[in-house]
Amino acid sequence: MKKEEELLNSSVVSIIEETNSNINQNIDYEENISNHLRESKTSYEKRVLKDEIIGFSFVLTCNFTRAINGLLMKYIEKTYPNYFETIPFLFIRASMIITLSLSTSFLTKEKILRPNEIKFKLPFLIRTNFNFFAVSLYTISIWYLRVSTVQIISSLNPIIVTYLSIIILKERFYKRYIIGIIVCLLGSLIIINNEKKESHEVKVTKEEIDSEIKKGEFTSGMIKGILCCFGSTLINCAVDISNKVLAKNKIPITTQLLYLGIFTLSYSFIYILITQRFKYCIPYVLFSFLQGTLFYIANTTFNFGIQRIDLSKAAPIAYTKVVFVLMLGGVLLGEQVYFSDFIGAGLIISYMLYNMKYPLIAKQ
């Protein structure tokens, strides 16, 4: 009996020891899993943060390039008033875009897709065709409205893009986007408002305006200008959304810009044939080629940027273009800078820095 009891006790002790050993192993295993998950999460967060910093850098580069491009456009228009006309200018620029697209494809060995090979037909159609119409409507709006009015309406673009990207692209919504848009829009309006101080060109006198209002002709022109400006803004929003769809689905930017150039060249050529208006000189053509090169760089960097960050987060960064134009205009063109410009720029830059602190860890 004693031997049996000893054997039984020994067996019980053995089972208990084995159970404890298994429990300890399970605890160690769970701790290892937990540590691995923590390390994976940290690694993932670092990777996302790195991606977002790169994305921000590309989008900022895009807006800096667009600012230079805008000033260059202003310089071309002022320096060559006898040659500059929007549609023929687009014709020259489009030829440069086509050349750059084909050259990039050749050097990088990247295949140019045919339209029938692209799955997303509507976004591709909007991306490659509608830029021409957006620029045309914008030009018409300038005929009827002050530049500051056109810029204010155009500054609604990031607001519309942010909400469309949330609705159409199902991107995550953050309350800080509303705060950011309000802050950046306010900063932009402060800077744009200073254009009134710089504008010395009077297109019509007060008496002429009063006379036109009485006849109803001036107000109809204003309505045309406002409609064209809103149309241009909405088309640009659709182009941005389409750009994100194509970038998300890895449609090469060289393919996008090649067909954008081809369609723009075609539409411009038709206009030139109908109107028989196409003036040029060598310096004007060279500056137009440079503008096309900057356009190509801006679109390429924007595409790289929105591959890494949500469009709803990239949209408010568009307001930095106003800051870049302000700085470059003062340095390169000698335009006057006011104290309120620094307030507006400070608001925009402050939000950019604030927004960059919040990477989208929960990216889908």
Provide an overview of this structure:
By secondary structure, this protein is mainly α. It is 80% helix and 0% strand. It contains 14 helices and no strands. The chain has helices spanning 2-79, 86-108, 121-144, 147-154, 157-167, 175-193, 195-198, 206-215, 217-248, 253-275, 282-306, 311-314, 320-332, 339-356. Helix 2 (86-108) packs across helix 11 (282-306), helix 3 runs antiparallel to helix 9 and helix 3 crosses helix 10. The longest helix is centred in the first third of the chain and has 78 residues, at 2-79. It is globular, with a radius of gyration of 29 Å. 35% of the residues are buried.
Task: Give the topology, please.
Blueprint: H1 2-79, H2 86-108, H3 121-144, H4 147-154, H5 157-167, H6 175-193, H7 195-198, H8 206-215, H9 217-248, H10 253-275, H11 282-306, H12 311-314, H13 320-332, H14 339-356
